[in-house]
Amino acid sequence: PAMLKLTAPITLREALGHRLALAKPTRKIVETLAAKVTNEIEKARLAALLAPEGKEQLAGYLEDREFIDLLVEFPSAKLTPQELVDHLRKLMPRLYSIASSPKPFPTEVHLTVAVVRYEMNHRERVGVATTYLADRAGSVPVPVFVAHSHFGLPEDGAKDIIMVGPGTGVAPFRAFLQERVAAQAPGRNWLFFGDQHRATDYLYEEDWKVWQASGALTRADLAFSRDQTLKIYVQDRMRENAAELWAWLKAGAHFYVCGDAKRMAKDVDVALHQIIAEQGHLDATQAADYVKQMKKDKRYQRDVY
Description:
Largest sheet: 5 strands, parallel
Distance between the termini: 28 Å
Oligomer: single chain
Structural class: alpha/beta
Strand content: 5-15%
Low-confidence stretches: none
Radius of gyration: 24 Å
Helix content: 40-55%
Order of helices and strands: HHHHHHEEHEHEHHEHHEHHE
Mean pLDDT: 95
């Protein structure tokens, strides 16, 4: 494929196994199949998907499928290996937050990986990188690189930090605590962590307990959504502790959010604005200005995905 900028040909196995993304088919592959099908029923189905009024239907259809599904559903369209790979995009790297500090672990990098497995369109699906790491990496060298992140601790170790990291979003905060402990930073550390069940999903529980016992972790507020009838999330714990949270912010604390962008980070942002408005006796505009200033001062940082 052109986007791989190869100097010499590679095998189809190498291309599909290591270089190309097999998900997210586009309208283009549907058009190619429509031009090649010989079966009348398949032809009619593709024509309906490509009809001008079928735009939304096509989007929904592609959303639920990977390239393999299309090949299975329209078997009368015969593609050459080259024709198929020309439709595929380059496999992009997956970026993970580093869950360790180089101070205690100079030769190691720890990652927090939740393995993705689900069913879609009656077929088992798996996360590309998570199952590679969990099931296949084993003894072979894993190709990695370090990407610089904007997400980092305050330069002044005396500053307090508030960390909101449910699920795998907790990764960088384990690194933050290791770093602050190794540097003997005097600033206070407050963690908000949540997941479904405390018994199975309290990631790095042993670490947090040790840090709480030593006083390095000043506070840990936990939200396990499925452990009681009413679902409780990190933003609920923030609201319960609104006065204390505002006191920390007023004293110059840095506020960090890491994890799910779609829902959690939005809900946390809304809660933050509300807490600042209520506790600071500000109207919505003033609260928004306060948050804007926090972002400018790099006191509000988000690492969301």
